[in-house]
Design brief:
The complex is a heterodimer of chains A (281) and B (180). Chain A has 281 residues and is α/β, with parallel strands linked by helices. Chain A has 2 domains: 102 residues, Dihydrodipicolinate Reductase, domain 2 (2-Layer Sandwich), CATH 3.30.360; 126 residues, no CATH class. In chain A, helix 1 packs parallel to helix 4. Chain A is globular and about 55 Å long. With 180 residues, chain B is α/β, with parallel strands linked by helices. Chain B has a single domain, classed as Fe-S hydro-lyase, tartrate dehydratase beta-type, catalytic domain (fumarase), CATH 3.20.130.10. Chain B is built from 6 helices and 7 strands. A 5-stranded mixed β-barrel of chain B has the order 2-3-4-5-7. In chain B, 50% of the residues are buried. Classes of the chains: A alpha/beta (281), B alpha/beta (180).
């Protein structure tokens, strides 16, 4: 059986996800901020966390963007192989949704058409679209409104197979330390290990889209996530980088098989205004 | 507990700036200006506002909804503007507001010209927008969100991160909470 989905249904869904993401901080992120407030010892750090929580409430109440950087629209779209899109094309439908969402919500248009000439496209398109064909007859759309400040702090390193766990840890801690206050801590650290040079950062970004506080399903990876957050929180960077106990709200690792010669490690840094939403058509 | 806020009304004097210490909390009321990367590149010899004693906010807001004066307006990363800072300080700029630390050259220039750097929480943009009462594009409207704005703010809250003697709250705070 083939299920037909009209392209404008995708447009409508993406539009709504953009609007929702910009103004409504996900429950798990808000909960992580509240937990951080309970643990933070620095008075300045606590004051900042209180302001961030209050900001989330104001944003939700007044339908105002949480952050003025309403992000690049990163879209992970899983297309069921039994779906046929009619009356339009997939990428156009997604971009049209982004354009409408960013206009309707009075969100900031932050995309430039050419990375060197830097002319704004004025509707926040194109989206960064990752498409995957999966079994079934649904379309699952996950949107991450990704701010530029934290994205700039991300990194990839091609380790080789004999690299020690300690070396990988050092790279992760170094990346967090280098980003310091610029990534708008407390941050979320998405780590992708494995795949190829192109695939590891996608894993890292997918890791960010996991619910905050949920660990990797593999026991030793989950343990490593816990160890890493402890180490990151020892750096003292703290909320907004002004010193404190809470530098990261979560560390989330995703892995994938890789070549016998390789061990890519990608780190995608995310700010505390972690805006991700999903919907299924 | 009532806090001891220091009130600032631009243009600020040398004396006011020198009295600010890293860690002080301030409330700003009056006219401040916004600019980020693209606008700085267009400044040329002189920015399009009176820079003597001015306060410059590294920010570009979301568009205002009908009936609102401004959208959300949080800070952007200040280090990106470090390269432009020494020249502006020479012209009389006294206070910059952003998020994140500053580079060594920018810090040295601030010390030399007796200027300070304030921070506001990155991502607290909805909350900060409540302190903006008026916003006017005064230059480079072609830059869209990156145009230069004159903002009329009331009790805009900020924290002194780097003072005119070079004390840096990022270093102080981090060293205090770092666990070896």
């Amino acid at each position: 059986m083939v299920r037909e989905v009209v392209a404008k249904k995708i447009t409508e869904t993406v539009k709504n996800l953009c609007l929702e993401a910009a103004t409504n901080l996900p429950e798990d992120v808000l909960e992580a901020l509240n937990k951080a407030l309970a643990k933070e010892e620095s008075p300045t750090g606590r004051e900042i966390l209180r302001q961030l929580i209050s900001n989330a409430k104001i944003a939700w109440r007044d339908k105002l963007p949480l952050c003025q950087d309403t992000g690049a629209a990163v879209v992970f779209l899983e297309l069921g192989q039994d779906v046929r899109i009619i009356e339009g094309t997939l990428a156009e439908a997604v971009n049209e949704g982004v354009s409408r969402g960013y206009h309707a919500g009075f969100l900031r248009k932050s995309m430039v058409a050419d990375p060197l000439k830097r002319k704004n496209t004025e509707d926040n398109t194109p989206a960064i679209l990752h498409t995957e064909i999966v079994p079934g007859e649904n379309i699952r759309i996950r949107l991450l409104a990704k701010g530029g400040g934290a994205e700039n702090c991300s990194a990839i390193r091609m380790f080789t197979p004999s690299a020690k766990k300690e070396e990988i840890e050092n790279f992760i801690i170094e990346t967090v330390e280098k980003s310091g206050p610029n990534a708008c801590p407390p941050i979320i650290v998405g780590i992708g290990i494995g795949g190829t040079f192109d695939y590891a950062p996608i894993l890292a970004k997918k890791a960010l889209m996991r619910e905050i506080g949920k660990h990797n399903s593999e026991k030793d990876t989950a343990e490593w996530e816990k160890e890493l957050i402890e180490k990151i929180n020892k750096t003292g960077i703290g909320p907004m980088g002004l010193g404190g106990r809470i530098t990261a709200l979560a560390v989330q690792i995703e892995k994938y098989p890789c070549h016998i010669s390789s061990l890519p490690v990608a780190i995608n840094i995310e700010c505390q205004a972690h805006r991700y939403k999903e919907a299924t058509i | 507990m009532p806090k001891n806020y220091i009130r600032l009304k631009p243009p600020v004097s040398d004396k006011e700036v020198k009295a600010l210490k890293a860690g002080d909390e301030v409330l700003i009321s009056g006219k401040i200006y916004t600019a980020r990367d693209a606008a700085h590149r267009l400044f040329g010899k002189k920015p399009p506002f009176d820079i003597k004693g001015a306060i410059l906010y590294y920010a570009s807001p979301t568009p205002a909804k009908p009936g609102s004066v401004i959208g959300s307006i949080g800070p952007t990363t200040a280090t990106r503007m470090d390269q432009f800072l020494p020249a502006l300080l020479k012209l009389g700029l006294k206070i910059t507001i952003g998020k994140g630390c500053r580079g060594e050259e920018a810090k040295a220039a601030m010390k030399k010209n007796k200027a300070v750097y304030l921070v506001v929480p990155g991502g607290a943009a909805a909350l900060l927008s409540k302190h903006v009462k008026k916003a006017t594009v005064i230059a480079f409207s072609e830059l869209g969100p990156e145009a230069v704005l004159e903002l009329e703010v009331v009790d805009f809250p900020a924290l002194v991160a780097i003072d005119s003697k070079g004390a840096d709250l990022f270093e102080l705070g981090r060293n205090k909470y770092k666990i070896k």
